[in-house]
Amino acid sequence: MIRDRFNLNKLITTLAAAGILGSIPASAQTAAWNLGADFSLDSNPNGPWVYNEGPGIPIPTSGPVWASNPCWFVVSHASVPAWCIANNPLPQPDDIPAGAAFMHATSDSPSTHVRTKASVDWVSPIAGKIWIVGGLWLSRDLGRPHIWSIQKNGGILTSARLEDDSVHDSSTPMSFELGSGGRQVLVVDVVPGDVIRLEIDRDRAVTRWGYFVGVDLSIIELWLTACNDGVDNDGDGGVDMADPDCLTPFGRTELGRPVCGLGAEMAFVVPLLAALRRARRGPND
Ligand SMILES: [Ca+2]
Ligand SMILES: [Ca+2]
Ligand SMILES: [Ca+2]
Question: How far out from the chain centre does Cα 128 lie?
Answer without folding.
Answer: 18
